[in-house]
Amino acid sequence: xxxxxxxxxxxxxxxxxxxxxxxxxxxxxxxxxxxxxxxxxxxxxxxxxxxxxxxxxxxxxxxxxxxxxxxxxxxxxxxxxxxxxxxxxxxxxxxxxxxxxxxxxxxxxxxxxxxxxxxxxxxxxxxxxxxxxxxxxx
Length: 138
What we know:
The chain is an alpha/beta fold. The chain has a single domain (2-18, 57-137), classed as P-loop containing nucleotide triphosphate hydrolases (Rossmann fold). It is 22% helix and 20% strand.
């Protein structure tokens, strides 16, 4: 997608309640402990913004955080995506029963299922990618 000039953002959901990208003892951690919110960390190669107690409750919240991206790739966020008809979804499913848990979207699996519309990866990746491009162009 990047090679086709799409601006791609990504977000990963971490379900561990005590997860932090910051580390105790680091200056940025000390800034946060002193009450800074957000904490902004800048190096020559990247910028990180840590928002304390920021809640992401909707798919729109995530899309807004992605700025002017054309595509937002999400890992996890099952709760936000399962009822959405607006998102192009690729759910890597384990079995046929998993098909019933996701509303709409595209399904792919690493296991061969005898289900119409379920792509077998990696063998059927070219067909899946073409379908994604078709949906992006509409």
